Amino acid sequence: MSPTYKNKDGLLIKLSPNPIATPGGEGAIYDVLNDLDIVLVAKIYHTPQIATERQGKIEFMVANSPIQDTSEEIQNAIVWPVEALYENERFVGFTMPKVEGAITLKSLTLPQNPSKKYGVQWAKFDHNQRGSHARRLAIVYNLANAVHTIHQKGNYVIVDLKPENVFVKSNGNIALIDLDSIQINNPNVRFPAKVYTEEFAPPELHKGLVNHKGGTVDATWDYFSFAVIAYELLFGLHPFQASHQKYTTRPELIKLGYFVHGNKANKLHVIPPVHRNYTKLSAPLQQLFHQTLEQGHLQTSLRANMNEWTNCVYPLLNTATTLNTQIVLAPTKRKKTIAKPNKKTTDHWAAMLESQKDSLFAYAFLLSTMLAFIGVYACYFMGLLKGALTLLFVGAILFTIQKKFPYTLSKIVKKPSLKEKFDTIGVAFLFVWTLADLIFRPIGGFPVSLVIYILLLPAFVAIFSKDTGNQLYHSAEQFESFLLKQFGTILISILIPLLLLGSLLQLSLSGIYQQAKRFPPQVIEQQQARHQKIATPIKSKETYGLGTSKETIIRIQGEPELIRHKDNQEILVYGTSTIVLEEDKMVAFENSSSPKLNIKLNESIVNTKPYFTIGSTKDDVIDIQGTPFALKRFGEKTVFEYGTSKVYIKNNKVYDFYNSGRPSLKVEAAINHKARKNYFTLGSHKDLVLRLHGEPDKKEFNHERKYSKWYYGKNWVGIKKGQVVKAYHNKHQPLLNIK
After folding, report:
1. Which of 184, 334, 577, 634 could potentially form a cystine with 191 if both were Cys, beta carbons 3.0 to 4.6 Å apart?
2. DSSP state of 673
């Protein structure tokens, strides 16, 4: 049911049943279903406490909108609260214009071509396209115009101005969102902004000179944030993105004024080559950046306001120089700068620490991926329970790595909110490789999965380091070069522990320690000698089947690699294939992996029928389907396994089957010639269902309702114990013939 609220005038506002977005942790966004002149959405706060805290702010913003009596372009560019919403006279949220057909500005501040993710209409913003620089300047102008309109009212400072809070359309129009977090600085009403983003906050915050929660910051805060956004939009990287021998985080560089084109640029260790494009800007535009990010570092009053930006950018939009300006993002090779040993001792140790960070990161990556592999390996060979315990142990180690070496995904892609999560590179690699393992292991077994692992590792290293290189706190070139050069070491370091692990598993599978509890020393020596002598089972053209003696099996198949005992059964192990003996005679087997067992069940009849069905004998199944991959016994019941398909035998006859895997079973309906109707209904006999629709794709027993469900695609028929139709589900194609 759609939620319904009222506005201040008592008009019912009906919302969509489900939210269309849940930004942050404050509330959810719903479509407004009322027939209105403009398309609206509503933000409903999650808790009454949050709503109570925001009520006064929202009601003030609705009553003091900066977009009243402005142009339609400005009204569309500022997503301002339209009206407050109430439920039983309790404030719950507000409505605002809906932004459609837009992407976040963050997508354009990255160096990648936006059309690869969002479609061809965004190709014109790719830095390699002629005119893209002019289109990006148009976005700068539109954003400056919108921020200027908000500042002009005199009551507001945005504070959390960042690319994620700006939407942009393919025509260059923008939409400022998330404005309910704005600071209200009115003589009678004061609401501080509770959130900000470090990378777009001015140096006075990082120095502790202002407190954003006090509601006292002025518009110069937004001037700094805007200049950073404009720089990122034009060049694809942050204006303080460079490598310093001592300071590694962006907030530290902002705090100390290391603008890449400022007076302290000569103290930076490595400056990414993309910053060289700065000289292609017009002199007035360079002056605005210099005025805001360099001169305004200490004197906030010197920062360029929004009116200065609009007056500077607008004349540049359609000039030939701007249209022909192209920003080159391709990295260029440069010589590696090394700290000279004759510098101060502190500088020497700082440079040394900087050089070790890449190494620590690489080794953390190496250890994480190795442990991730062992975790999946344990699940595959040790079973789900032991594997799950192993994964918990691996997770604990990965978490320790995360704490010890904090160079994690969150640090690289700069998402501080992920700082406390288990997000080491090894975890990311585990997810990627597990997906590949699920795809390729059923096709080619574990060896193929291991090959995929080895091939995936260099690809993962190369792609990961290349995609995130421009966002590293230290030199991206050094990081990528180091990992690629050390790839051989990484492979060797991973394969050696795996070989040791395989040796330990092989030693445990040999059963030497288990046999020591059952046999005297001379038998153990014979077992060791036998294990060393016979590397592979003896190849023989002879076959054997159920009832074959242990002596005959060993003569044909060769000595087993291991003998296990369970209850009254003796289990011969050949690789991962097994033979189950009772009273020294074969009663079951597993033959689904290498080395293959020489098993072929006796075929006592010659059957010309190409199919078998329920009621057919087990000899019919073997004659038509061949020897099963595995045969298991459960009391009086026997299960023939063909891949993931199964045939259930009782009293030497087929009573059920499961036919959803590979290879498919050759089954058909047991046709009842007495049934002449061309449809079935409730109470019809199961033979009529079989005659009309053939054997089902799958059968399962519904324990709750106590009847068997036969599946034909997504449709199903419920069969009671009396073998008549009790229920059915007939909503999918192809439809069942039901009347």
Report:
1. 184
2. T
CA distances to 52, 59, 105 from 56, rounded to whole Å, are 8, 5, 30
Return the structure tokens found at 588: 């079951």
Distance CA 404, CA 424 (A): 11
Give residue 471's pLDDT: 36
Residue 442's Cβ-count burial label (10 Å; 0-12, 13-18, 19+) is: middle
| Cβ atoms of residues 106 and 268 within 8 Å | no
On average, the pLDDT of the chain sits at 76
Q: Is the pLDDT of residue 218 over 80?
A: yes
Beta-carbon contacts of residue 455 (< 8 Å; ≥ 6 apart): none
CA–CA dist 77, 70 (Å, integer): 11
b/e map of 453-487 (b: 16 or more CB within 10 Å)? Answer: beebbeebbeebbeebbbbbbbbbbbbbebbeebe
Check: CB of residue 172 under 8 Å from CB of residue 142: yes
Q: How confident is the model at residue 710 (pLDDT cuts 50, 70, 90)?
A: confident
- CA dist., res. 222 & res. 207, Å (int): 17
pLDDT class for 304, splitting at 50, 70, 90? very high
Q: Select from 735, 719, 736 the least CA-distant residue to 727.
A: 719
For residue 565, what are the β-bridge partners? 570
What burial letters (b/e) apply to 692-713, b meaning 16+ CB within 10 Å?
A: bbebbbebeeeeeeebbbbebe
HSE-CB of 21 using CA atoms within 13 angstroms: 10
Residues 245 and 347 sit within 8 Å (Cβ to Cβ): yes
What CA–CA distance (Å, rounded) separates 692 from 399?
A: 59
**Please, which contacts does 409-417 make with residues 24 or more away whose CB atoms are closer than 8 Å?**
411/473, 412/468, 412/471, 412/472, 413/468, 413/471, 414/199, 414/250, 414/471, 416/198
CA-wise closest residue to 710 among 654, 647, 657: 657
Task: Please list, in sequence order, all residues whose beta carbon lies within 8 angstroms of the beta carbon of residue 444, skipping any fewer than 6 positions away.
Answer: none
| Torsion sign (Cα): 652, 653, 656, 658 | positive
Q: Burial level of 541, CB count in 10 A (0-12/13-18/19+)?
A: exposed
Work out whether the CA dihedral 616, 621, 622, 624 comes out positive or negative. Answer: positive
Helix, strand and coil content of the chain, in percent to the nearest 5, comes to: 45, 20, 40
Residue 419 pLDDT grade (very low, low, confident, very high; cuts 50, 70, 90): very low
Mean pLDDT for the stretch of residues 172-186? 91
Cα 371 to its chain centre, rounded Å, is 19
Token pair 């396209």 is at which residue?
129
Count other C-beta atoms under 10 Å from residue 447's C-beta. Answer: 10
- At position 339, the amino acid (one-letter code) is A
| DSSP codes of every residue in 702-715 | ETTTTEEEEEETTE
Instruction: Extract the tokens encoding 614.
Output: 């329920």
Q: Check: CB of residue 627 under 8 Å from CB of residue 663.
A: no
